[in-house]
Amino acid sequence: MNYGINEKYNCIVIKLNGKVMGGPDAKTFRNDLAKLIEEEKKNVVVDLSNVKFMNSSGLGILIGGLKKMNEAGGDLKICGATDRIKSLLMVSQLTKIFDTHETLDEALAAYK
Fold this sequence. Notes:
Shape: globular
Number of helices: 4
Number of domains: 1
Low-confidence stretches: none
Largest sheet: 5 strands, mixed
CATH class: Alpha Beta
Number of strands: 5
Oligomer: single chain
Strand content: 25-35%
Radius of gyration: 13 Å
Strand order of the largest sheet: 1-2-3-4-5
CATH superfamily: STAS domain
Mean pLDDT: 93
């Protein structure tokens, strides 16, 4: 997994790419979220539109990110999930805990 981080409309957008499967990437992701929290940037949108595959460890990365942001008084929303990833989120019942949106613009608008 690789990802890019940028800021748009006072929100942080993290665009994930490729396969999201845990491992060393999970620690890097957690560290990046910690830096954002230190900078008082707590409204995060994770864009999954370029994610080709995600396993349970990948889901754990997202869950951990949501928990970390919530504990800091922030939030983490998801957008752009492909049909395959949407199915994974539904089967694991994570659609009940994540605020999911079809597009990045919808997710950003949800913070207003």
